[in-house]
């Protein structure tokens, strides 16, 4: 028995040594991770021989601080939201990324010009533009909700609503539903009255809200009939509607656009491989390929032209992108600067409001 | 009396074979035994110290130690760089309440320029932001522009952003300039310091922690009571049934106990959700209208139900272990002496089970006060507990100091309750098996 143990331990050690080149990537799970595995991980391993370990979290920004402070970093690359990327970078928890080593576009445009404004940060490189939208289950809703105001109208469209358990995006949507123009939302939220107004709007549907936390929950809640409408990450709804043929419909009015960015936690065990992974995955072709697995917009301008059909070969991706012209009618771009400043304060108030 | 004195006198003269006084020899032997015993528990002691006491102590230290404004620590090399040095000196020279003058602003500007060099503006801003929202960008943009400012700096800074003259900001900077602070404990009880440094309650719509502490305490007591009500008859049955049957029943108690917590919680979600088993059954039986399904989950009710079930074995097992050895002839004797069955239970049986109740109640209560995953999953908005907010500050807001302050208040509260329990019931009266 003891001999077997020693033998297996030795063998495992040997196996690890043989596969020394590896990189651990933490992402959001579900359909999103799947799209990254197809578009980034598999081609990356094929071209470099570096194994990619995929880990999921309901928010990959969360474990970083604990890992770095404990000096036990197990993740090499994490896929995080904009305000989290800035905050973690501020706290010195991320490696700086030299964006000059990112590949240029096929036509020679340097990466710095090819990425959308704001996509390249000191410690982060954006890979996708995603958005928080609301969606409904056509089987459970009579009539057609078309505006963000309809989401908050439980007399016209009775039934439960799903919302992300976080102040971010929730408050903005409440204000837009209350008639505030997208361009004025953040100016309004910088005032006490604006915040009061947002909470007052949320109050009007408070008893009908089911709160979700992981991105995979809303499609599930909608499909189960647990809620009739829910806010969600647009790609998750796309996946449920197209790949799983659920009767779900996205309403683009009042959508909130945001970046997801790759970051490297400080002290990552495979920093070099992580850099290679990021520069490979944010190349023009990889970003375009990712967009054929899930409806998130690529963060490079040059990838746009290459986005074609969904991997089923028949669904055109363009109209499902949050950045499609038709979907930008009443859209808000998430103001990360505002959220880095007010995250703590507004979430505190949000928690107080939830608990009252 | 005289005999006794003689005995002692003789004692002093007793010696061992090699001539040492007996007393000293005994003491030496005992000390040796004690040392040996200590060496035996040493591994455990070291283990507890390294894996439990030190990390918890470090974590709790953070509740008063938050040097983000005055010290930059490299996470890898642990190298420390002092920040905001000039401003710190100004605070030292000028007492609380001094109107910030030109000298103060000059110090601030030179510190901001230094911040930019060490790239610590975000960190320093974040520390101030914990107590005064909106300050982080004030520091990042201030550090960006500070080098270009010209004296008089007071005017220049205020022109840059009016927030710089906010007296509350200066108060927070002052308090953040000393390494140790009690402000996180204040925040943890919904208090803050105003611009004059006086302690005041935070605005009504931001008061959350006291409320949640009270709710946590109330729900934990309720859950403890419910588990007691449910567990007592079950434990009695287990203890009095013939061995074979009681073993069968015991399996039914232990099986869920051995099942993963997450599995049990998700099972409750399947049962309780509005399209779930319970609601479906009631609609099917015609008790409920399809449109008016009851909300059994994502509220306090769901939390109480799921936690009561999950913690039930912690009450049943200590009760069972106490009830098992109770001799049935005591109750029989009471009955034969004319006691009613109620009196026999109340005066004879029940007092013998009190140590088990104490142990079970303490276990369930302490576990439920710190419960996290079940309220997070089934609690929704009004079923969350203080532990969920601690997790929020650990994971999302990254304000570990506040999380540590909340956690130490929770720990302190439990210790007080434990002490009370000891005074009222007596901890030696506790029996786990």
Secondary-structure topology with pairs:
The complex is a heterodimer of chains A (356) and B (433).
Chain A (H helix, E strand, L loop, with lengths): L1 H17 L3 E6 L2 H19 L2 E6 L5 H8 L7 E5 H9 L20 H4 L9 E14 L10 H4 L9 E4 L5 H8 L7 H5 L2 H12 L5 E4 L4 H8 L4 E5 H10 L4 E16 L7 H11 L2 H7 L6 E2 L2 H4 L26 E3 L2 H20 L1
Parallel strand pairs in A: 1-2, 1-3, 5-6, 5-7, 8-10
Antiparallel strand pairs in A: 3-8, 4-7, 4-8, 4-9
Helix pairs in contact in A: 2-13, 4-15, 7-9
Chain B lengths: L1 H12 L8 H40 L9 E3 L6 E3 L2 H9 L8 H17 L2 H9 L5 H11 L7 H8 L6 H11 L5 H6 L2 E3 L5 E3 L7 H32 L2 H16 L2 H12 L4 H8 L15 H24 L4 H9 L4 H29 L3 H6 L7 H10 L4 H25 L9
Antiparallel strand pairs in B: 1-2, 3-4
Helix pairs in contact in B: 3-4, 4-6, 5-6, 10-11, 10-14, 10-16, 12-14, 14-16, 15-16, 18-19
Provide structural commentary:
The complex is a heterodimer of chains A (356) and B (433). Helices cover 41% and strands 18% of the residues of chain A. Chain A has 356 residues and is α/β, with parallel strands linked by helices. Chain A has two domains: 20-129 and 259-315, D-Maltodextrin-Binding Protein, domain 2, CATH 3.40.190; 132-257 and 325-355, Periplasmic binding protein-like II (D-Maltodextrin-Binding Protein, domain 2, 3-Layer(aba) Sandwich). In chain A, strands 1, 2, 3, 4, 5, 6, 7, 8, 9 and 10 form a ten-stranded mixed β-sheet that branches. Mean pLDDT of chain A is 88; it is low at 1-18. With 433 residues, chain B is an all-alpha fold. Chain B folds into three domains: 2-61, no CATH class; 68-206, no CATH class; 209-429, MetI-like fold (Orthogonal Bundle), CATH 1.10.3720. Chain B has helices at 2-13, 22-61, 85-93, 102-118, 121-129, 135-145, 153-160, 167-177, 183-188, 209-240, 243-258, 261-272, 277-284, 300-323, 328-336, 341-369, 373-378, 386-395, 400-424, and strands at residues 71-73, 80-82, 191-193, 199-201. Chain B has a two-stranded antiparallel ribbon. The chains are: A alpha/beta (356), B mainly alpha (433). At the A-B interface, helix 3, helix 4, strand 6 and helix 15 of A face helix 5, helix 6, helix 10 and helix 18 of B.
């Amino acid at each position: 028995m003891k001999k077997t143990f020693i033998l297996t331990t030795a063998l495992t050690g040997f196996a690890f040594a043989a596969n020394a080149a590896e990189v651990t990537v933490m992402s959001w799970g579900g359909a999103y991770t799947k799209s990254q595995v197809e578009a980034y991980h598999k081609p990356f391993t094929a071209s470099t021989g570096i194994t990619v370990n995929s880990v999921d979290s309901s928010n990959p920004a969360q474990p970083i601080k604990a890992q770095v402070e404990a000096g036990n970093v197990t993740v090499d690359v994490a896929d995080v939201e904009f305000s989290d990327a800035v905050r973690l970078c501020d706290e010195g928890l991320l490696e700086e990324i030299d964006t000059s080593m990112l590949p240029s576009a096929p036509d020679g445009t340097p990466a710095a010009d090819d990425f959308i404004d704001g996509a390249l940060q000191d410690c982060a490189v954006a890979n996708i533009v995603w958005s928080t939208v609301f969606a409904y289950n056509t089987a459970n809703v009579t009539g057609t909700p078309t505006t963000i105001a309809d989401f908050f109208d439980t007399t016209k469209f009775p039934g439960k609503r799903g919302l992300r358990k976080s102040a971010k995006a929730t408050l903005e949507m409440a204000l837009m539903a209350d008639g505030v123009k997208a361009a004025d939302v953040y100016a309004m939220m910088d005032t006490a009255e604006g915040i009061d107004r947002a909470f007052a709007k949320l109050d009007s549907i408070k008893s009908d809200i089911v709160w979700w936390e992981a991105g995979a929950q809303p499609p599930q809640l909608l499909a189960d009939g647990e809620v009739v409408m829910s806010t969600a990450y647009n790609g998750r709804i796309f996946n449920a509607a197209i790949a799983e043929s659920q009767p779900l419909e996205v309403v683009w009015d009042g959508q909130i656009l945001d970046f997801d960015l790759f970051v490297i936690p400080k002290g990552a065990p495979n920093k070099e491989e992580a850099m290679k992974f990021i520069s490979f995955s944010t190349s023009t072709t990889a970003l375009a390929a990712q967009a054929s697995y899930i409806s998130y917009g690529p963060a490079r301008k040059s990838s746009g032209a290459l986005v074609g059909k969904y991997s089923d070969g028949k669904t055109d991706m363009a109209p499902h992108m949050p950045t499609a012209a038709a979907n930008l009618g009443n859209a808000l771009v998430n103001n990360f600067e505002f959220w880095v400043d007010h995250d703590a304060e507004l979430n505190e108030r949000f928690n107080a409001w939830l608990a009252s | 009396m005289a005999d006794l004195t003689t005995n002692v006198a003789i004692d002093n003269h007793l010696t061992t074979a090699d001539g040492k006084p007996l007393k000293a020899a005994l003491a030496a032997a005992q000390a040796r035994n004690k040392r040996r015993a200590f060496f035996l528990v040493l591994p455990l002691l070291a283990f507890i110290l390294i894996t439990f006491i030190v990390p918890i102590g470090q974590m709790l230290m953070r509740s008063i130690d938050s040097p983000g404004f005055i010290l930059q620590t490299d996470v890898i090399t642990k190298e420390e760089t002092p920040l905001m040095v000039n401003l710190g000196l100004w605070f030292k020279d000028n007492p609380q309440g001094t109107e910030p003058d030109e000298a103060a602003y000059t110090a601030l500007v030179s510190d901001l320029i230094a911040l930019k060099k060490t790239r610590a503006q975000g960190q320093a801003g974040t520390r101030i932001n914990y107590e005064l929202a909106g300050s982080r960008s004030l520091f990042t943009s201030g550090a960006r522009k500070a080098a270009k400012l010209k004296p008089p700096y007071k005017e220049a800074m205020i022109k840059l952003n009016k927030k710089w003259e906010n007296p509350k900001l200066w108060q927070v900077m002052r308090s953040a300039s000393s390494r140790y602070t009690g402000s996180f404990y204040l925040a943890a009880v919904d208090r803050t310091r105003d611009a004059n440094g006086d302690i005041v309650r935070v605005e009504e719509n931001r008061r959350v922690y006291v409320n949640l502490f009270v709710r946590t305490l109330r729900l934990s007591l309720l859950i403890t009571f419910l588990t007691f009500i449910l567990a007592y008859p079950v434990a009695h049955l287990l203890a009095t049934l013939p061995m074979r049957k009681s073993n069968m029943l015991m399996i039914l108690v232990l099986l869920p106990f051995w099942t993963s917590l997450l599995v049990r919680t998700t099972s409750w979600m399947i049962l309780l959700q509005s399209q779930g088993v319970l609601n479906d059954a009631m609609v099917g039986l015609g008790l409920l209208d399809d449109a008016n399904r009851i909300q059994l989950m994502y509220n306090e009710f769901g939390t109480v139900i799921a936690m009561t079930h999950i913690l039930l074995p912690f009450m049943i097992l200590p009760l069972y272990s106490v009830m098992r050895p109770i001799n049935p002839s005591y109750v029989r004797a009471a009955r034969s002496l004319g006691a009613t069955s109620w009196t026999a239970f109340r005066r004879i049986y029940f007092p013998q089970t009190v140590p088990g109740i104490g142990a079970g109640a303490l276990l369930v209560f302490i576990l439920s006060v710190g419960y996290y995953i079940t309220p997070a999953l089934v609690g929704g908005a009004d079923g969350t507990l203080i532990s969920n907010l601690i997790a929020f500050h650990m994971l999302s807001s990254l304000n570990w100091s506040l999380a540590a302050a909340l956690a130490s208040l929770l720990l302190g509260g439990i210790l007080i309750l434990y002490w009370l329990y000891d005074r009222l019931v007596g901890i030696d009266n506790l029996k786990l098996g």
